[in-house]
Design a protein that fits this description.
Elements (H helix, E strand, L loop, with lengths): L2 E3 L2 E3 L5 E2 L5 E2 L6 E2 L16 E8 L6 H4 L18 H9 L8 H22 L1 H6 L2 E3 L20 H13 L8 E3 L10 E3 L9 E9 L5 H10 L4 E11 L2
Parallel strand pairs: 6-11, 7-10, 10-11
Antiparallel strand pairs: 1-2, 2-3, 4-5, 8-9
Helix pairs in contact: 2-3, 3-5
Length: 242
């Protein structure tokens, strides 16, 4: 059971998360009094970013600084500096650690998603009440029906959104957004399905991390142009590059 103790959120696996309650610009790091974007740096049309906690995006690139020994097992958190345990959990779910199985990743994602949903229900309940649809960031190859058989069909974002949808009891529309065929890494392009009406709907985009908003920002712009009323971003960790 997720709980709160001494100002931190404790997840089902006893990982402590320092929650984020304020928005700040990913580029200039300035605190934002309202909204989710800095008008000096970028103008994305979503309303705000809701975080479970911090995510140190560089920890896995420089192992010696952050762990006490080589990690030989999935979930071997005892060897990780406590400050970076939350980062390892996210990276496990993203298959940064090659020993993970699909089942391992889904189990990790479920723990993190439950934590995000818990925080939203407690601290952002006014937003939760108005959300009509939850969506994820899709990828062209994803296929949840077969991802246990083929790694390339797995999309961790799909499961974050799906599990949060279950915890929040809000409909999950996994086919509202699609990645276009001409989309490429570093220049991903997305479309909005015309088969699902989103006019005047409030939409929550769920994903694992938020770094610069280069993907979520343009998607929120497309959702607004397709008729959505308000768009919110919900992520497990707001990235802090170290």
């Amino acid at each position: 059971m997720v709980k709160e103790q001494d100002g931190v959120i404790i997840l089902d696996n006893d990982i402590s998360v320092l929650p984020i309650f304020n928005n700040y610009c990913s580029k200039c790091k300035k605190n934002l009094s309202s909204g989710g974007h800095c008008y000096q740096c970028q103008q994305y049309p979503y309303e705000s970013v809701i975080n479970l906690g911090y995510y140190f995006s560089g920890w896995f690139r420089m192992k010696d600084r952050y762990i006490r020994a080589d990690i030989k097992k999935t979930f071997d958190l005892n060897l990780v500096n406590p400050k970076y345990k939350f980062s390892k959990l996210i990276n496990d779910s993203k298959r940064r650690w090659y020993r993970n199985t699909i089942s391992d990743k889904k189990a990790t994602i479920k723990i993190l998603s439950k934590g995000l949903a818990w925080k939203m229900l407690k601290y952002e309940n006014q937003i939760v009440k108005i959300i009509d649809i939850i969506v994820h960031i899709p990828k062209k190859e994803e296929n949840p029906d077969r991802d246990d058989l083929e790694w390339n069909l797995f999309n961790h974002g799909y499961y974050y959104a799906r599990y949060c949808s279950e915890e929040l009891a809000i409909p999950f529309k996994d086919n509202l957004i699609y990645e276009q065929e001409d989309s490429r890494k570093g220049d991903r392009n997305f479309g909005i399905s015309s088969n699902i009406s989103i006019r005047n709907k409030n939409i929550l985009i769920i994903d694992d991390t938020y770094t610069r908003g280069d993907t979520k920002g343009p998607i929120s712009d497309r959702l607004k142009k397709a008729g959505a009323s308000q768009v919110y971003i919900g992520v497990i960790g707001r990235s802090i590059v170290i």
